[in-house]
Write a structure and sequence with these properties.
38% helix, globular, alpha+beta, 188 residues, 7 helices, disordered C terminus, 3-stranded antiparallel β-sheet
């Protein structure tokens, strides 16, 4: 039996890229200040693959169920590194950990990063863990401080909601590729 994917709409916010920017900026700053720089793999400083794994696991207004061993394997990194990155994300307000037991975690994602449109009210999700609103600087990684964090503010999240209400309440649906409603163009 095939299921409809039209309503599985993901709204991503500025926090998605901000996590990657902030992590790489911090890593680069740390490396520059140390006398010894170490060689690292091309993706060693990137947070985006982990963020995308978390975001694509969102199901309505609920925490992501996260298995460290499985995710470390999927991300091609050791579990210790993955745990360190999850801790960093929690420390910087991109996620909130809601318990960890036997290699499993329940992770709430800051709605400034992403949320499921039509299934999650970002104001309520932000209030639940007092999530900050996180944005990238307009000049991106070229900025001295590429990420700006506004601590949790109920009125601030209300303003974000009002400015994006149409997208949040009635998000665009794209049936392309939906097994029930979409038509996949035939390759010629």
């Amino acid at each position: 039996m095939q299921t409809c994917t039209c309503d599985h709409v993901l709204c991503h916010g500025p926090g998605l890229l901000a996590a990657d920017f902030q992590y790489r900026h911090q890593l680069r700053t740390t490396e520059q200040s140390s006398a010894k720089t170490r060689r690292r793999s091309a993706d060693a400083g990137h947070m985006l693959p982990l963020m995308m794994r978390l975001v694509t696991k969102l199901e309505g207004d609920a925490p992501v169920r996260f298995n460290y061993a499985d995710e470390a394997s999927e991300l091609n990194m050791d579990e210790e590194t993955l745990r360190a990155r999850i801790a960093w994300l929690a420390e910087h307000g991109y996620i909130a950990l809601d318990g960890q037991v036997d290699g499993l975690a329940r992770i709430w994602v800051n709605p400034a990063v992403a949320f499921r449109a039509g299934k999650t009210d970002p104001r309520i999700a932000a209030a639940r863990h007092q999530f900050p609103y996180i944005v990238t600087d307009m000049t991106g990684m070229a900025a001295e401080q590429p990420v700006h964090v506004a601590e949790y503010d109920k009125q601030g999240w209300e303003l974000v909601y009002q400015n994006n209400a149409e997208q949040f309440e009635d998000p665009p649906r794209f049936p392309f590729g939906c097994p029930l409603h979409g038509e996949v163009e035939a390759t010629q």
